[in-house]
Automatic annotation (TrEMBL):
Keyword match Thylakoid: no
Uppermost EC category: hydrolase
EC number: 3.5.1.105
Keyword tags: Carbohydrate metabolism, Hydrolase, Magnesium, Metal-binding
Cofactor section: Mg(2+)
A Pfam entry, by short name: YdjC
Protein name: Glycoside hydrolase/deacetylase ChbG (UPF0249 family)
Protein source organism: Paraclostridium ghonii
Stored CDD domains: YdjC_EF3048_like (cd10803)
Length: 249
C-alpha cells in the first residue's frame, strides 16, 4: 500500500493561508503542514495548531520570503532587513553559512518554544536542497534529528528522508492531477505531496503572484472526488508523525 502525506506549505504566511490550510485539513485530505516562523500569521497559526492536534506540523525553513527571525544578519538580507526573494546559486555563495545555520535554528527553536511538536523540516522554495547549503543542513539534522523532505540535488547520508512529489503546482493543479500522476505516486511506500491551499486575503494578494491558484488547490483538496479516488486506489493518508512507526522511510 502507498501512503501519502499531503503537506500544506506556508502555514503562518498570513490569515488567509492559515484558514485555507485548516479548512483543507478539516474538510479535505491535508494531513500535514509546515510553518514559517518569521511570517505575520505565525502567532495565529500556533493557536490553530493547538486547536487541531491531528494536523502534523513541520518547520518551513525560510530564506527567501519576508524577514528573518534574527535581526543580526549581514549577508542574508537586503538593506531593508528583508530576505532576498530569489536564491540563485550566485547569491547562495555570498551567504555566511554560520548566519544561515543560526537563522534556521532560530526558526525551529521558535516553534519548539511555542510548545508545538515538530514532525519534520522542509523549506520555502526548497532552499534546503541546494548543494551550497549542504553543510548547514547536515548540522541541522545532527542537532534536531527530525525527518526531512527530500528532493536534494546532493547526496545526503541520513535515514529519515521522505521522497517529495512537487508537481501539484501551477499549471498542473487540476482535478485530474492525482489520476494523471497515479503511477508516480504508487512508486513509493510513502511520499510527501506538496500543496498550497489558501483563501486569498490582502497580504497574500500583494506579496505573491501565486494566490488565486491556492484557492483552486483548496477546492480540489476538499473535494469528494479526490477522497473517493484515493480510497478506490488504496492510498492511505498519513502525516510525518506516523511514518517512523507504521511505514518506515
Amino acid at each position: 500500500m502507498t501512503s501519502i502525506i499531503i503537506n500544506a506549505d506556508d502555514f503562518g504566511y498570513c490569515e488567509g493561508v492559515n484558514q485555507g490550510i485548516i479548512s483543507a485539513h478539516k474538510n479535505g485530505v491535508v494531513t500535514s503542514c509546515s510553518i514559517m516562523a518569521g511570517m505575520p500569521g505565525f502567532n495565529q497559526a500556533i493557536e490553530l495548531l493547538k486547536e487541531n492536534s491531528e494536523l502534523g506540523c513541520g518547520v518551513h525553513m525560510t530564506l527567501s520570503c519576508y524577514k528573518p527571525v534574527l535581526k543580526t544578519h549581514k549577508t542574508l538580507v537586503d538593506e531593508n532587513g528583508y530576505f532576498f526573494r530569489r536564491i540563485t546559486k550566485e547569491k547562495a555563495i555570498e551567504f555566511d553559512l554560520n548566519e544561515l545555520y543560526l537563522e534556521f535554528c532560530a526558526q525551529i527553536d521558535k516553534v519548539i518554544d511555542a510548545k508545538i511538536e515538530i514532525s519534520h523540516i522542509d523549506s520555502h522554495h526548497h532552499v534546503h536542497t541546494l548543494e551550497e547549503f549542504k553543510p548547514v543542513i547536515e548540522k541541522i539534522l545532527k542537532k534536531y534529528k527530525l525527518p526531512i523532505r527530500g528532493g536534494f540535488e546532493y547526496e545526503i547520508n541520513y535515514d529519515k528522508v521522505v521522497p517529495l512529489i512537487d508537481s501539484f503546482y501551477g499549471e498542473n493543479v487540476g482535478i485530474n492531477y492525482f489520476n494523471d500522476h497515479i503511477n508516480e505516486i504508487k512508486k513509493y511506500i510513502v511520499a510527501d505531496i506538496m500543496s498550497h491551499p489558501a483563501f486569498v486575503d490582502s497580504f497574500l494578494s500583494k506579496s505573491t503572484s501565486y494566490s488565486i491558484q491556492r484557492t483552486i488547490e483548496h477546492e480540489i483538496l476538499t473535494s469528494y472526488e479526490l477522497k473517493k479516488f484515493l480510497e478506490d486506489n488504496n492510498i492511505s493518508l498519513i502525516n510525518y508523525k506516523n511514518i517512523g512507526v507504521r511505514e518506515g522511510y
